[in-house]
Amino acid sequence: xxxxxxxxxxxxxxxxxxxxxLALLQHLFIGIFIQDLEFYIHYVWPLNMLILGIASxxxxxxxxxxxKNIKNIFLVIVIGFPISLWFHFDISSAFMIWLNIxxxxxxxxxxxxxxxxxxxxxxxxxxxxxxxICGYLLIIxxxxxxxQYYFYRYPNxxxxxxxxNPVDTYASFVYFSTVTITSIGFGDISPSIHFTKLxxxxxxxxxxxxxxxxxxxxxSKFNTKNN
Length: 227
Description:
Shape: globular
Radius of gyration: 18 Å
Number of helices: 8
Structural class: mainly alpha
Number of domains: 1
Strand content: under 5%
Helix content: over 70%
Largest sheet: 2 strands, antiparallel
C-alpha cells in the first residue's frame, strides 16, 4: 500500500500541471456535453469538484504542511456544498453567496501557487507552458465566482443572465468571464450597477495584463535558456 501511495505521489509530482489543466477544463466546460441539469447538480457537480480537488493536490506536494492543511480544508468545504444538496438543503441565495466566497478563495489559493511556479525557474519547459494555461483558466474561475457572488446578492446587477437554475447561472458567468478576460465582449450579458461594471473592468484588465506579462516572462526564460 505504501509503495502504491509513493507511485501515485510521484505521478502527481511529475504531471501535476497536466492533471490540473484537464481538471480545470472539465470543471469549466463539461456542461457542453450534459443536458440534464438535475443530473449535473446532484452528481456531476460534486464529482468534478472532487476531481479538481485531487488534481490540485499535485501543486502542494513539495509545499509546507500548513498549505496542504488549508488546501484540504477548502477541499472539504467546496465538495461539501454540492453534497449537502443530497440531504435536501435548499439552494437559497445565502447558500450560493457562501458557496461563491468559498470557491473564490479555493481557486485563489491554487492560483497563488501556480504564479509562484511561473516566476521561479530561469528556464522554459512543458510544465511552465501548461502552468501558464492553468493560470489563465484559474483567472476565469475567479471571475466566474466573483461575478456570481454579486449576482446572488444583487440579482439586478447583470443583464442577460439565465437564472432559471444554478447551472444556467454558472454557465452564463463562465461564458461572460471568458469573453471578458479574452476581450471578445459580445455584449449579450452586461453589468448594470457601478460595482459590477468596475469588477468587469478589473478582470478585463487582469486578463490582458496576465497575457502581456506571461509573454514577457516566457520570452525572458527562453532567452536565458538559449544563453
